[in-house]
Amino acid sequence: MSTSSKAGVQTYKNFINGKWVPAVSGATFPVYDPSTEEVIAQVASAAAPDVDQAVAAARAAFDSGPWPATTAQDRGKILHKLADKIRQNTARLADIESRNSGKPIIEAEYDIADVATCFEYYAGLANKVMGHVNPVPANALSFTLREPVGVAAQIIPWNYPLLMAAWKLAPAIAAGCTCILKPAEQTPLTAIEIANYFEEAGLPPGVVNILNGLGETTGAALVAHPGVDKVAFTGSAAVGKIIVKSAADTLKRVTLELGGKSPNIFFPDADWEAAVDGALFGVFINQGEVCSAGSRILVEKSIYSKFVEAMTEKTKRIKLGAPLERETKMGPLVSKEQYDRVSSYLEIGKKEAKVAIGGGRPKQFGKGYYLEPTIFYDVDNSARIAREEIFGPVASVIPFDGESEAIRIANDTPYGLAAAVWTRDIYKAFRVVKSLRAGIVWVNHMQPTYVEAPWGGYKQSGFGRELGPWGLEEYLETKQVFVNLDETPIAWY
Ligand code: ADP
Ligand code: MG
To answer: Which of 166, 205, 416, 470 is deepest in the core (most CB within 10 A)?
Structure first.
């Protein structure tokens, strides 16, 4: 049983070595519904002794038992079964995700479908991992084996809770690694839920462990632990830097998907309606809690005023509401902490730029961490609201004069996760694409993300790539095997 109930609120345990266990200390932390501000669950809070247990389980499962003997085909079948279980439980998982994170139920349903698709993708890829035969001289044979990197600690954020779990678990399982997944403390409930499917899907005990707790304790202990071979992290740049420093002591492999301050660039010849929608969707989807949010909207001067006006008008139509209502397009922010953080940026923005719409708390909600979708305009790219990741529904609109200025402003950021450009001019579109320093550049769209294509950042948006074959690579080592074919002894003495 993952749970026990006390005072009407469920208490969830950690999943270690195929069993539900409370924290060694007995400690729990509360989990909230951000639309009501009420506690909806308590979750076991892991500390060093729990981390030791989880790492020991993952290590043992990696080194011995059924997992190392599992074939690539078998791992593919397990991933397919997980995908099937997830699809069968879409309604339940989407409900939990929406309730816990505040994202609209419709969005949560898309997320769960993407989760299943991600498991299916890596199910198919599991038995397509191949080595090379290397062209060494004729008296030898050299080839490469691709082997799992070992025990992976996977630390994920709260904006796409189960999807981020899938992006990390699916390729790791396909590669034959073992995992300790640490969900964000704000949103642990869907990862806990899918652990109930592991046994039926055929995952041996210890292959995937779900360890809950706070970043500074559970997360930090995982990163420092000598029994962990690799850390895969998605989260803030600030924590990414802490992780790299800590992982250096044991020289773990590290992949990081960090934040962004992504430019969304609009030229006058873009399809007008699509462009205005794309600007809003790019920055406001998922309450703006998106690492690739197009939070810097760069608009050429000749259309600038009209574009800001059109964005403002359409923003009035965004339906804010309770996450579980199907008409809702924007729910509350995930937590009090995030609400306070974004609110403080609203105050900073009011000093740095002009407000087109929004700027505070929507009047209609008595409770919940709701904030209005907010558009700042006449923003200078040196302003804090143009440089710092806000991770909320806050757009900074910046005017520019011509293509080269657009590129200069777009690249004038420490980040490089994503960018988008809107124009009907194919020459201009691809010149801009080539000039932008970002891990993904969309043309005439922003945000679509497919499991088949790579995802990750340039510059301070991190390193390593997720999704597609690139995502699997990050969980593989390369072993060269050299075979001597020459029977004559080495003429050494
Ligand atoms: P936010 O502040 O928006 O929650 P974080 O980057 O702090 O974003 O959180 C992303 C993930 O990183 C969460 O799972 C969190 O628990 C974890 N985390 C936070 N601090 C640390 C840390 N010092 N070491 C390891 N993991 C951490
Ligand atoms: Mg944090």
So the answer is: 166
